[in-house]
Amino acid sequence: MLFPNYQQQNYRYQVVKRGYLHKGKRLHLCNTITFVFMRTTINEPLPDKEECTSSLKNALDALSVINGRWKLALILCLMQSSKRFSEIQHEMTGISSRILAKELKELELNDFIKRHVYPTTPVTIIYEATGYSRSLKGLIGELSAWGGQHREKIRQSMRKQS
């Protein structure tokens, strides 16, 4: 057993610092491997199995709904203003019509966007963000901040390598 007194003394391991090893030092995956410095804290209550399972299910549900290359970008695009299909496609370069239609349908199914059909000739369809999609604003802000930190960390490690 790796930690023999784990259950008896109720240890919890927390990530203190992350770093990268260059290729050739120990095991490597692609060009780098992540290693983690850990700090132990004694006598903090560990979450029970049900709490862990519930938290994991909630996180997986959230990830399955917003998973995909374009979903968060579409939500952000429609949070700015309501748009027609062609306006969305023009604003989001690199997405095909088929993928855009699929992503919009999935977002509509999950109540992140609303589709308004106007009986004109030709038919006008306008997509807009719902109040429910606006609840993701804090999450998107946190993801954006973390992404910026991660990008900067990778840039610094690449500078150190060269």
UniProtKB/TrEMBL annotation:
SUPFAM superfamilies, per database record: Winged helix' DNA-binding domain (SSF46785)
Entry keyword Disulfide bond: no
Protein name: HxlR family transcriptional regulator
Keyword hit for Transcription: yes
Name of one Pfam family that matches: HxlR
Segments forming domain HTH hxlR-type: 52-155
GO molecular function, one term: DNA binding
UniProt entry keywords in alphabetical sequence: DNA-binding, Transcription, Transcription regulation
Transmembrane parts of this sequence: none
PROSITE patterns the record matches: HTH_HXLR
Domain of life from the UniProt record: Bacteria
